[in-house]
């Protein structure tokens, strides 16, 4: 076998002379359109990127980020912290009551639901902090997870307490949760309407 | 677009600027489409496979080693998709048989280009011969002579050694010569 394939020169020249097929003229458009759909579906890639990029959040970036982005992140983190405190207090009270007590379950379940809701808000806040444009979709989903868990919590409390005042308080809590969720959603919408700067000091193209 | 510009685009895409990816699609759509077309014999399949190649590249861009060449990585994705596609369709031999209308169209195109009907017939015959090659020989021939990759690049794309690639190309050319002479 000759490495330069000289015995097949004519055939090689014919191969190289074969005409190139032109791809469809809208191929780039179609691909970019499909990426749009993908962007909304790849939570795993987004979370990986969020974890990687969280380390790039800097104090100077925080100061330089436009106020809308700062407010959105601040709202997520503060709301998350609030519910984390409530959930932690409830969870710790289970330990004080004695976890073997049958009634402990009635407090344990709401505490876990509230802690999970708090974590979803923290994750939403981080996602907004590292990429306020592309991850708006998933930040909204984080709020929906939070809302769903809290409503589940309210339903559970109402079903357990079974008194008028208990029900009213639980419902009031539920309404407050929903109002907070709507406020966070609106904050995200406002932040993605303008050219916001992320905490990683990158101007996001809108 | 040089290597540095390409790296800059990749960096921007990984930073969240999705629209920057269009630059890479524009640059590589023709070679990827041609590879898929030559391998499958169908424009529709080539279109689907080309789109899928870029989608997969975008999905996995965070895994791409930026010290390496992007187009080699992209070709690898493309070749794997094409192989899977051909494997899935290997019973459907029909799709590799060019229909009469496509042959007529190709003949018209070559006659326009070369202004020579016998040359056009030779080109069409050559295309048919390529399509009748076994998949592993076909991909080596196409990557080397139509996509103009070096032996090392073909080896990186196909996952073989350079010597295996050369042997495959040699066998492919030999087989093509026999089929043409028949």
Write up this protein.
The complex is a heterodimer of chains A (206) and B (182). Chain A has helices at residues 9-17, 27-39, 43-54, 59-64, 67-97, 104-130, 136-161, 164-193. In chain A, helix 5 runs antiparallel to helix 8. Helices cover 75% and strands 0% of the residues of chain A. By secondary structure, chain A is mainly alpha-helical. Chain B is mainly alpha-helical. Chain B contains 9 helices and no strands. In chain B, helix 2 runs parallel beside helix 4 (70-88) and helix 2 crosses helix 7. Chain B starts with a helix and ends with a helix.
Largest sheet of chain A: none
Helix proportion range of chain A: over 70%
Hey, roughly how much beta strand do the residues of chain A contain? under 5%
Q: Approximately how much beta-strand content do the residues of chain B carry?
A: under 5%
Summing up helix and strand content along with how strands pair, one would put the structural category of chain A as mainly alpha
The level of helicity of chain B is: over 70%
Large-scale geometry of chain A: elongated
Most extensive interface, residues per chain?
A-B, 39 and 46 residues
What is the β-strand count of chain B? 0
Q: What is the straight-line distance between the termini of chain A?
A: 58 Å
Sheet of most strands of chain B: none
Chain-averaged pLDDT of chain B: 83
Q: What form of chain B results from the Cα inertia axes?
A: elongated
- Note the total helix count of chain B: 9
Low-confidence stretches of chain A: 199-206
Order of helices and strands of chain B: HHHHHHHHH
Overall pLDDT of chain A: 77
Determine the number of helices of chain A (DSSP H or I, runs of at least 4 residues): 8
